[in-house]
């Protein structure tokens, strides 16, 4: 049964990725040769992104890779009873089952009043992946929670019980004391491994059901939470996220890091401290392409760490550099956080990439200069050889031009963001399959599944963070914050300082994607009040979240680095603190001297 279900889930992911890559490429060809275009191609791609989001989340639940703040997965088949884990399991399956059942009413309404995404494709059919995906996540959560049948049966019973309670007990959290207790209990479970998307969905339910209304029931309001996920995920530019991520995964499975490393060493190895520059450039490249600093640390750490130590740098310095460099690159195209920020704030992502390019280079340069200053006294130097450099260039030329192709595709107007991403996947497939032959056709299904698992884990957080943001907007929280700030803060400089502190804290305790969705609607009106340019605000926001990744004590990269290099946390703190302070200076420069970059 499980094997058959897994094959169906995998096939849906293969199909969705095939559509979102082939359709944009076909649209480019149809424009170029004046051929017919696919009707509603963009709308189909947008809704396939929705399917990838929820099916990817299903794969993440199946493989126990739903994103949480704890390192060890909580949904693991164990015969031992743990109260903290049980509470996480019970809340997770209960909330997911509630959301799935509540959205069935939206599907019913869609069937009664059909609308169409494209010819012969109804909106309700496209949306059906939401309850189906949630039911599958619920099923996999139960199956991976324990090896004991009685335990699983208890979770099923709890899911049905909580659904019945919410059906008959309308607005159960209108009591402030009960609401406060439930919110604190939910936040406490975060430390025990409650998945991030469940945290956001739970908070949304708690707050939405705290204010009684005559026009809606519990289930009506819970359906709007999932519907918010639908609206954000089918945004026109969001399809670029799974496509660019797939390109990054394909490159990560190849030997690109070795080829680029050889090229940089033969070309720049004669410079004092060149190894630092090479490490920073490689990490920034991978982070920009994959959208995740964690992927960079895990994928490149084993290659770059020994090279730094061999070149004479201390182990502490090397550890700090790789941990820090893993969060560089989020302002370079085609950064996924930058795309998500653009969607959330309603700005043009191309404009953000253009104006964020110099600040990104500046932050990169700050780290490189610090590395140059701390280069070892006795360092192995590589004599420059034009012949060797050209040879390495000849080998790596197909991959070296990738950043140039991305920039040209984005800024020339030849293709949209999604079309540029699709072209990149086709290009990467061609060079890795037929030129370098690092990847075989039989490797692609596994790469697609790994990519879908990561993308699903991110996009489902994004979707339910939007549901929580919906409550904040309905409750006029941004307006209330604006009035409070107007009374307490008069200086733009003080506001920017407070913003930096807020975003540093957010970068520590939240992943970048949910931080964008939840916080941007809150701070955008404040920034407008103080006359801050929306693009400048975006650059400040992303730069601070980059820094939040290495902010002690709970920056995400600190834990990933500890896991990757098998170092205790005090060692990681010691290694990264100097980088934290120099990057903090860089962020303050970007914050207070915007004219330096424009």
List keywords for this structure.
single chain, 75% helix, mainly alpha, two-stranded antiparallel sheet, 2 domains, 598 residues
Folded structure, characterized:
By secondary structure, the chain is mainly alpha-helical. It has two domains: 2-233, no CATH class; 271-381 and 476-596, no CATH class. Helices cover 75% and strands 1% of the residues. The protein has 26 helices and two strands. The chain has a two-stranded antiparallel ribbon. α12 (274-290) packs antiparallel against α16 (349-373), α13 crosses α25 (556-565) and α16 (349-373) packs across α26. The longest helix has 31 residues, at 2-32. The N and C termini lie far apart (59 Å).
Brief write-up:
The chain is mainly α. Helix content is 75%, strand content 1%.
Strand order of the largest sheet: 1-2
Q: What amount of the residues lies in strands?
A: under 5%
What is the CA–CA distance across the termini? 59 Å
Low-pLDDT regions: none
Radius of gyration: 24 Å
The tally of strands reads: 2
How many domains make up the 3D coordinates?
2
Helix content: over 70%
Secondary structure elements and their pairing?
Blueprint: H1 2-32, H2 41-62, H3 83-112, E1 116-118, E2 121-122, H4 123-127, H5 129-145, H6 149-168, H7 176-190, H8 196-208, H9 218-233, H10 240-252, H11 256-268, H12 274-290, H13 293-310, H14 315-325, H15 336-345, H16 349-373, H17 386-400, H18 402-411, H19 417-435, H20 444-474, H21 477-488, H22 492-509, H23 512-529, H24 534-548, H25 556-565, H26 569-592
Antiparallel strand pairs: 1-2
Helix pairs in contact: 1-2, 1-19, 1-20, 2-5, 2-20, 3-5, 3-6, 3-9, 7-8, 8-9, 8-20, 9-20, 10-19, 10-20, 11-12, 11-17, 12-13, 12-16, 13-14, 13-25, 14-25, 14-26, 15-23, 16-24, 16-26, 18-19, 20-23, 21-23, 22-24, 23-24, 24-26, 25-26
